[in-house]
Amino acid sequence: DDDDDIPQLSSHTLAALQEFYLEQQQREGMKTSQEFNQYSIGSIEEDWQLSQFWYSDETASCLAKEAVVAAGEGGRIACVSAPSVYQKLKEQDGKDFSVYILEYDRRFSVYGEEFIFYDYNQPLNLPENLLPHSFDIVIADPPYLSEECLQKTAETIKYLTKGKILLCTGAVMEEQAAKHLGVKICKFIPKHSRNLANEFRCYVNYASGLD
């Protein structure tokens, strides 16, 4: 029989697949509805292969508020590999600040001119319009918990910032964060929408509201 070589799905697998397609259709329906906000967390789904883990809504809101206060009136904010903070900042229409997102994932190019393609392996390969020391605060979340990744991302951060740095990375990186960026750990503990095995912390080099 020619059908013998065709893999057959079990009823359980088939039901799970149908459920997945239904959820996918619902998500697509939400995206086309008027209520959909392209800046809401989850509008672009996590890609674990790119080591992406979105913050919880509460954490993203807290970090966004901190950035606005730290940047000051008319301030400029750079989000380096921290798209969920960028999305929260963009929800705050009418606020007097500007924000850019530096991100490897080109799906975020939907955000137009505020999106800048960024590869931490080439930390200073940045557009000419990103002038040195032109941002009031830089928020960064290096994608990997390695000193190499932190060190290279630190080059980008130090190039962009006028002085203020808000770093989010693993607790195990505390010593390297101090070494490369002169930042200290905060009391505030960031949470992710999916629980991570690694303990995450925030680090700053200024008097912040995160303590």
From TrEMBL:
Keywords of this protein's UniProt record, alphabetized?
Answer: Cytoplasm, Methyltransferase, Transferase
> Which GO biological-process labels does this protein carry?
methylation
Q: Which organism is it from?
A: Sclerurus mexicanus
Does Flavoprotein count among this protein's keywords? Answer: no
Which PROSITE patterns does its entry note? N6_MTASE (PS00092)
The record's SUPFAM superfamilies line, in alphabetical order, gives: S-adenosyl-L-methionine-dependent methyltransferases
Q: Name one GO cellular component term.
A: cytoplasm
User: Where does the record say this protein resides?
Assistant: Cytoplasm
Alphabetized GO MF terms: nucleic acid binding; protein-lysine N-methyltransferase activity
The name under which this protein is listed is EFMT1 methyltransferase
A Pfam family matched by this chain, by name? N6-adenineMlase
- What catalytic activity does the UniProt entry give for this protein? L-lysyl-[protein] + 3 S-adenosyl-L-methionine = N(6),N(6),N(6)-trimethyl-L-lysyl-[protein] + 3 S-adenosyl-L-homocysteine + 3 H(+)
Please indicate which superkingdom the organism of origin belongs to.
Eukaryota
For this protein, the record's InterPro entries field holds: DNA_methylase_N6_adenine_CS (IPR002052), Efm5/EEF1AKMT1 (IPR019369), Mlase_EEF1AKMT1/ZCCHC4 (IPR041370), SAM-dependent_MTases_sf (IPR029063)
